[in-house]
Amino acid sequence: HIPHGFYEKQLKEYFSQFGRVTKVRLSRSKKTGKSKHYAFLEFGSAEVAAIAAGAMDGYMLLSQKLAARVLGKEEVHPDLFKGANRVFKKVPWGNIERERHNRARTPAGEERRVRQAVERDQRRQQRIAKAGIEYEYEGLAAVVPKKAKKTKFED
């Protein structure tokens, strides 16, 4: 139940009052990077961890009631602290997708894109006919200009 705005740096600073914090891992959403409101901390010694868990269990922090407990060695996954103590860097997915969408297409890539659109349209027409709906429309195949054939002239 970690409140919003209480991230890795704040967790490490706050829990350092009990003893040396060696690792901090705040769970975040892969899509948005926002906190999932739970974290794992590793202390220098097991005694310090037990004291911190006992003191912070049920503690009200920024209008959130914390739930803290000590995990046994058998409960700790080997990859639990993978990527711990790293500063979170938000991935600009919008910019990446915008650049991908707006990139210049090669003639072969454009031809492939048009071919796939025509195939999708034909499958859509087949599904409409299979459903028993009488619907006639000019498909994409009629709108797309035909590829020019190469003509060889004999001398």
TrEMBL record:
SUPFAM superfamilies (alphabetical): RNA-binding domain, RBD
Domain RRM: 1-73
Segments of skewed composition (Basic and acidic residues): 108-123
Region (Disordered): 98-123
Top-level taxon of the source organism: Eukaryota
Subcellular location: Nucleus, Nucleolus
Chief place where the protein resides: nucleus
Protein keywords: Nucleus, RNA-binding
A Pfam entry, by short name: RRM_1
Cellular component GO terms held in the UniProt record: nucleolus
InterPro entries, alphabetized: Nucleotide-bd_a/b_plait_sf, RBD_domain_sf, RRM_dom
Gene3D superfamilies, alphabetized: 3.30.70.330
Any one GO molecular function term: RNA binding
Cell cycle listed as a keyword: no
Name of protein: RRM domain-containing protein
Organism: Chlorella variabilis
